[in-house]
Sequence to fold (314 residues):
Amino acid sequence: MMHNLKKVLVAGVFAGALVGGGSAIAQELELATSMPSFGFPFFVHMQKELEAEAAAIGGIKLMVSDGQNSTPKQTADIEAAIIKGVKGIIISPTDAVAMAPVLQQAVDAKIPVITIDRRVDGVPGITSHIGADNVLGGEAQGKLIMKLFPNGATIVNLQGQPGASPAIDRNKGVHNVLDGISKYKFVAEQTANFAREEGASVTEAILGGLSSPPDVIVAANDDMALGALQVTNERNMKIVILGFDALPEALASVRDGGLAATIEQFPGGQARMATQAMVKFLRNGEKPKSLVLLTPIAITKENLSEGERLGEIQ
Fold:
């Protein structure tokens, strides 16, 4: 299934063939790649997929940088890439707004920029954004809550890092589905900054302040969901917990009856598509679509085989 999915994803960016052999390979390209933080397994996976696709295509050198969850650090990394004269930039921005000025600098320097997973706002010259439709991902969480609790539910919402586009969009999606339906009530909503330890500490504080346990904890990523699961296990509470990102650990937890579900957004597919798109643009002049959004799906025990990283779990 994943092999067929990859074919579909590539076709979504270009009508033409994949980057292949021939004289084009002789043109060596140096590309800059920048992730928000390698402290998150999700972005380590994306970077590995970028590197794997670059190696598969051939003739590509990568200038790799770790934003360390800091907009000033990621800005400095991109400034260094611009000064070095890289041929293209593939970036997942730490912040949708704060990273706009430096990416505008790149665009003004005629360096193509492709954003992946996280978008940036206010830079019309961005070559392409390739990511998941995070609003639809949040809506998938909301719809699953309705399916699991048709008679209503009390919900704790662990939100992601403020300013990060996935946090904004996933939260919007959950509320799109559940707002206005009185039997679904958000009893607490708080950021845990996409971090596992913070997910645990925020969950502990919220549960301590509620008169009764919630039915559901919905989290904007798997790290926060797994942090929440640790707390509920310690308290011997049976609360449905939904994650997002389909990390191998989260898939294993779904398999073993820990998390009820996680949302798959195909990060490896995003990374490989972005690499292909950039190289075809630079070598062949084929401009990709300005916006490519994959549709996330909810992964439960019933469809665990659809997880992109299922092969990585023990």
About this structure: The radius of gyration is 20 Å.
